């Protein structure tokens, strides 16, 4: 049995910046995020553990070493094993301190990115150079969203760094899903995706870092109801959502929409008779919730629906019209998983 068949993969340390280590492998041996690596160290140094958090290109991964100052030098040999034992969560304090090395800023965030994703461009506008935290349970769609955004931004020269967490209990399932999609993964593009192992699904410690420019929350309730993407507009924030960046009208639409959606969330949390209440405001909130669903390009083969992209100004106009009552005569289902509302 050769070493490739044994599950052992060997790489070499390329750069070291505090806790952040870049390692190069042969392309066919490139480990996926969450893989555990071990540096053999020098003859007098103890082995150092490194957890892969991102693939930078077809031959380089970025990892965090633990402990943060374990001895490791450029040129050190690194090995990954197929069976590395139980997954251990990353110390989030190490992650937060290492953000500047994990995702270095060339400039401050600038230039709005036109993602064509309705719920993002309106409620959580993104700018080139941002560091974005995504959180949600495994099956809420964070992985699909990261793939979709990577595909949409390919070739646009607008960089983003996306970070998401994976509970250690879900790590094996996530790796199987990642391997299943390996043929369609895009690495070395404008979007760098980071996956961080955590002890559970309490995302508060992860999202509270001051280094995030935007935070996007994915909702289990929305995913279970098949409202995709399952991004909760009430838990999506961005430093770009200001009048100076997107304009006063944009901010006003978002504030009005969030008020309607918060009332709908409160009604959904009450007894059955409240959930079926048909006031005008709740009806508009349900229309908006359906309108914010959208087919993705990466899901076309599974959903049977062609992916769509919507201009931000059109999305804003549609949201404003829904909230003003222009679509009160419609059933929410007529706005579900499509682009713009049907024409009269």
List the main descriptive attributes of the protein structure presented here:
344 residues, alpha+beta, Bovine Mitochondrial F1-ATPase, ATP Synthase Beta Chain, Chain D, domain3, 3 domains, 6-stranded antiparallel beta barrel, 5-stranded mixed β-sheet, 31% helix, 23% strand, elongated
In brief, what are we looking at here?
The chain is an alpha+beta fold and 344 residues long. The protein is built from 13 helices and 13 strands.
Description:
There is one protein chain. The model is unreliable at 1-6 (pLDDT under 50). The protein has 13 helices and 13 strands. It has helices at residues 92-97, 99-102, 118-123, 142-153, 171-180, 204-207, 220-224, 243-246, 248-268, 272-275, 280-291, 300-303, 312-324; strands at 9-17, 20-25, 36-39, 48-55, 60-66, 77-80, 110-112, 127-128, 130-135, 160-167, 191-198, 214-218, 231-238. The longest helix has 21 residues, at 248-268. The chain is elongated, with a radius of gyration of 22 Å. Strands 1-2-5-4-3-6 form a 6-stranded antiparallel β-barrel. It is an alpha+beta fold.
